[in-house]
Amino acid sequence: MVQLTPVARARLEAFKAVVVKHAHLQDVDDQLSLRVEEHADATHVLLCGPDSVGKSKALSIIAERFKDEETDRFVVPILLLEPIPPDQGAYLRLDYYWQIIDTLKEHVLVKELVGSVAHIMTAPKPARAKLGTIDWFKMRQVAEQALIRARVKAVFADEGHRLMQGDGSHSVDEQLEWMKSLSNRTSEFPALSIQHVWR
Predict the structure, then answer these.
(1) Which domains does the chain carry?
(2) Which helix (H) or strand (E) holds 56?
(3) How far is CA 135 from CA 88, 118, 130, in A?
(4) Residue 145: its pLDDT value, please?
(5) What digits encode the pLDDT tens for the residues 138-165?
(6) For residue 157, what are the β-bridge partners?
(7) Average pLDDT value over all residues in the chain
(8) In this predicted structure, what is the pLDDT of residue 88?
(9) CB 129 within 8 A of CB 170
(10) Cross-referenced InterPro entries, in alphabetical order (predicted)?
């Protein structure tokens, strides 16, 4: 392997540091930022496009910018989640609650909530899928309260199509109604939006 001279290495690093934002990506950034800030109840935005065009990157940049601009340390402006496909079975609504709680569990105003569902959070996924109605309800309740206490303005669900598939027992319309109900229940912070990224 050819070694670069210090001058060549410096020039290469300077070149790699140059960032030019594509005009269309800037438009996506502007539109998503507006959706988060406009305080519309139960807003669902679908960000569509082919693989590797920068959808996930756009979401992470926007989430990071909102975080950097937030002056209140108790506010989590955007919760960035990726509904990870399970090793066994389908992606369940319970997995979504679990991810919300797990992401916010270190928030000072959320920590006390986590104790009431700690047994579910630490259970292996196959065991979680067999939980009773009360446990499911408790997980949803804690997820909603976590979103409210952390004052989350938007949830970006990267690869959000997994939420639409669910476990196959609900239609797409039923899944959308479920997500809308989650948004409505946390409407104390009316800017809560759920963003879905489809690949």
Answers:
(1) 6-197 (3.40.50)
(2) helix 55-69
(3) 20, 11, 10
(4) 92
(5) 999 999 999 999 998 888 888 777 777 7
(6) 81, 196
(7) 79
(8) 65
(9) no
(10) P-loop_NTPase
